[in-house]
């Protein structure tokens, strides 16, 4: 069986395993004060080219939940794509903190400045808006849940609308390595850091064993964030676990390199899919490739390949996903292409 | 100026004022144990023809918030029309208690059994549904926010789907008197009580000074509801305020009669609107009438009439609302008709 | 039976009932924009001698809950007396909003500046305080749940400690009329307004039918408070109910006069209790009098008087409460004294 | 410098590191369906000798928060020792979920059946208890935050009171290995599982890199617990991280052995402390030893040893803690004893 089902099937990048092993018995402070966390934070700050407050948590839903709940006021909600992770697949983690998720209709997994602007215009134009949830933040994913990318220009436009309506901008980077590793990506860690108030750098799906690095470039909104992390259950006593991983990921360009491995494999598969006449569901430049297949194709493929099932369309065809990762083997890619 | 702007512009039905005045210095227990609350509950139970647990709170958002938060589990959300009061105009009161509001596209303010069923089928068919909010309740309004009515048959169908998917059924009756007072309404308090697990009988918009009566016919779901009311800030020390009002409202058919007054006025206006060629936005058999007007009409009308503005349509025309009530004066109705 | 069981047994002050009756059919805007609310707010501002933002809600727990939840940050808690209403008798209304109630040991229902200071010193001295709930507010009641009063000097000292540790100061005035009506009270509405960031003026227990007036003299902390009220279920559509009541209460010194009626009756009872050798549980200068009785006395009294039971002491004796109010009849007081 | 400051200074037990390394590139399902989680759960069930539902989360506060919030009803709180972790050092994580923590005065870190019974008796005897938070659960720690142990008899008594008052019993086993590894401990995993409705087996402080295993022996209370974990941010995509660790910890008696290593070192230190005339703050049979020192002793010790500071007593002396762990080196213990 070939595995193209997700990007978290393996353990961790060998470089991280080595660092874990070699540091295992060193005695370290906890709760973020270990030498690895300190070093990792410096490296990330260097990479984004500006000062920031950085915190590590163990997973993506946790990152989204704690960031959003910490910065929104009681009466504010967060605007997201209707396909956004917080809107669908986090079991109401955001609502559980008391905040509404406003959903905008997405196109290829993305929302745009125009849609956000219209939403805010309508909100403030409503004579009853004091009886309604105020928009307080915009949540985007880079890359999106459908593998697509926001261009730098698109982010700039969204940033501009956010400033106009006093919305904070938060980017979920659960798969950020696969954006940075894509040749079609014109946003860097630096530009994301410049344009967002806060974002997170995904580890779990990008070669780490677990963990995400939350980066606040807007330092006004993260006062006592550690205590917020604690009360939401997001603080690890042994913070070294996070420190070691991100210290290695941000040494020698490893993070971007891991992303590139995944994207290169995906592009190879994408070219094969196109050549063989498969219908792409959308045009993804990153590690997730979505195609439309009929019953027969789906059944046939599933004999030899583990892939993701997304939905059945109105025409009866199915959207499936091939997902590569930092750990994808070129041999497996070749075998998959043969089968296609 | 003629006032057709809402159904809460005046104080209370004179019968209630009289009862308040005559009982004013009688000494009563508080927190629901006063003689008026006890009497009112008996009258309501008689009216619905079955046993029930009944509680009084001071407003509609409070009723919705406390009922929903009390009966849902952490991981459950509530299904509502996208035009439902809890979805739009309660400032996130439901999300504030940790629960997601799922919205279904409504038609004339209503959702139907088919839509609820499809939603649940899709939910349980999703392989990832354990990562998603579970549907736990259906919220409907009778009449709806657009004045329309669920027929008994429609409620029966919704009830059936709810049973199938273990959803509780909750009816918001903020304007229930105007359903009961409508000749097109084939649901009675009895049938609503039979088909819903819990509903509330609106006072604030139906002739009371303030307050709503929450009726649990499903007694399994309201254990310790008093304490839930307390912790959500919904308990009144002087419960007599509620008791007196609902005791009077449910004496001598007053509640339905107040509703009929409002609906009769609305029907008279509706007939005039139709005769004079106005475009009805939808066909409402209750106390709210929605019409589509152009800029000129809107401006003209606003010189002499206070009415509600709902929204501007894509064609540039406006949806406005004439709202009657238990207090609407026939003379005012005639004057309005002259102006139209 | 004589009723000295609480201060919410009757309806409302006759002046309020008159105003309700005479204004009943006038058409008013809702949600706080009615002419009575506007007038009442002006009168209260005049009374406190400074600008303020004022909001009306229907009950005390609601006032406490919404104020505290609106101004505290996620990681902050509120300091209260261990006998404070929010700490004991609100069914966890504060915790329900996500905030811890820190309790300080009280003396005669009061806490003091020294205790608050020690609490904060210990908190900030703790090396692990980032793992702990931050104190963010001090909650006091004037008069307290035991009828005692904070002196102006005590409030000034508490205010000073609050400033030192960046704590907001909030006074629960559920029975404020009985403080203002006491000859031993050296705090006025003006001094309370000067020394607290926010307080509420109790209506329910002080002659209103229902309702409390929340007064923010610190206007920095109540931005969008209306929307907070809405989402916590504390907004009344028919705000006139509140407006009329507080407009009357703050006309012609009625509020203080109602308080004085209750306190005068209580003082007469207190003198009789002392003369007849009853043991006072503590020295209360307001409308609640607590005495210690044995089994026999308790049983005997309960034959003719309805009073409150507080607790059984370790020596087997009982603390009971005689509570007077704005509605207490002098004849009843005389009858009680005869029985004692 | 000698490190006796806590039990989470090092990485993980070498056996776990080996298992992580050897399994690193194996492809595994996520979200709890990996082969390691399945195997670990079987081993734990075998160890406790009964069926159970088992879940893994990344830290102790998370375990406490999710368990408590998942099983309590809105109007219920949890009873804990005033020194309990949830009462002091979790930044209000429990209150953040809407629940009050009731604190009972502890003795040596423990509460007892008598105290719980009195609390419940008083609660139900209070005529106003419907206005108060209901006790719904008892939280204990085994060993406690002060290193002490509940005996089997004590747990049985607590269990009995819990049954009587319909309270769930939850044991926080953050340091459970150090209970199991103590010769003075007469509770086994089996007896804890028999007497508690739910408990967690601590990994983070007991030799794992991170993580805790939540064990529900009362399966009625954990329906949809996975979704609760998700919405509280406690689900790891790469569940293998947890599975591998607990699979190794519960192979060949490793978990208990790691605990014994820590306890043996602590007992050696305890004997030396006693011989050298140090004042023990209390008598701890596990890996945490608390002693009372004066300023001079504290300063002297701190030159060569990193230890924990707990509090300064009223007599000016200080309570400090020496903490050993699975990773404590015998050589370091000897060096410490020389210094004492």
From TrEMBL, chains A, B, C, D:
Annotated keywords: Aminotransferase, Pyridoxal phosphate, Transferase
Keyword Membrane attributed: no
Lineage, broadest ranks: Bacteria, Bacillati, Bacillota, Clostridia, Lachnospirales
Protein name: Aminotransferase class V-fold PLP-dependent enzyme
Gene3D superfamilies noted in UniProt: Aspartate Aminotransferase, domain 1, Type I PLP-dependent aspartate aminotransferase-like (Major domain)
One biological process term in Gene Ontology: amino acid metabolic process
Superkingdom to which the source organism belongs: Bacteria
Family indicated by similarity: Belongs to the threonine aldolase family.
Source species of the chain: Lachnoanaerobaculum orale
One Pfam family in the UniProt entry: Beta_elim_lyase
Cofactor(s) in the UniProt record: pyridoxal 5'-phosphate
Boundaries of every Aromatic amino acid beta-eliminating lyase/threonine aldolase domain copy: 12-253
Molecular function per GO: lyase activity; transaminase activity
């Amino acid at each position: 069986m070939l595995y193209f089902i997700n990007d978290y099937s393996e353990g961790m990048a060998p470089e991280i395993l080595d660092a874990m092993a070699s540091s295992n018995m060193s005695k370290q402070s906890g709760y973020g004060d270990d030498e690895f966390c300190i070093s990792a934070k410096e490296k990330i700050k260097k990479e984004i080219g500006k000062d920031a407050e950085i915190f590590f948590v163990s997973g993506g839903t946790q990152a989204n939940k704690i960031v959003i709940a910490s910065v929104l006021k009681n009466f504010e909600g967060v605007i997201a794509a209707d396909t956004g992770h917080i809107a669908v697949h986090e079991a109401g983690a955001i609502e559980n903190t008391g905040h509404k998720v406003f959903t905008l209709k997405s196109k290829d997994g993305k929302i745009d400045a125009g849609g956000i602007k219209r939403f805010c215009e309508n909100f403030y134009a409503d004579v009853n808006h004091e009886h309604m949830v105020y928009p307080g933040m915009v949540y985007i994913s880079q890359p999106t849940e459908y593998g697509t990318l926001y261009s730098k220009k698109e982010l700039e436009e969204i940033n501009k609308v956010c400033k106009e309506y006093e919305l904070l901008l938060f980017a979920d980077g659960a798969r950020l390595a696969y954006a940075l590793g894509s040749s079609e990506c014109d946003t860097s860690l630096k530009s994301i850091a410049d344009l967002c108030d806060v974002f997170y750098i995904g580890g779990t799906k990008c070669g780490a064993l677990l963990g995400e690095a939350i980066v606040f470039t807007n330092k006004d909104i993260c006062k006592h964030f550690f205590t917020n992390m604690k009360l939401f259950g997001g603080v690890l006593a042994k913070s070294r676990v996070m420190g070691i991983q991100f210290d290695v990921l941000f040494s020698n360009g490893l993070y971007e390199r891991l992303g590139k491995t995944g994207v290169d494999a995906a592009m190879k598969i994408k070219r094969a899919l196109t050549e063989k006449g498969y219908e792409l569901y959308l045009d993804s430049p990153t590690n997730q490739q979505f195609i439309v297949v009929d019953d027969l194709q789906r059944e046939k493929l599933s004999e030899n390949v583990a892939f993701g099932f997304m939905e059945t369309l109105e025409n009866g065809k199915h959207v499936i996903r091939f997902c590569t990762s930092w750990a994808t083997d070129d041999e497996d890619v070749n075998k998959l292409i043969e089968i296609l």
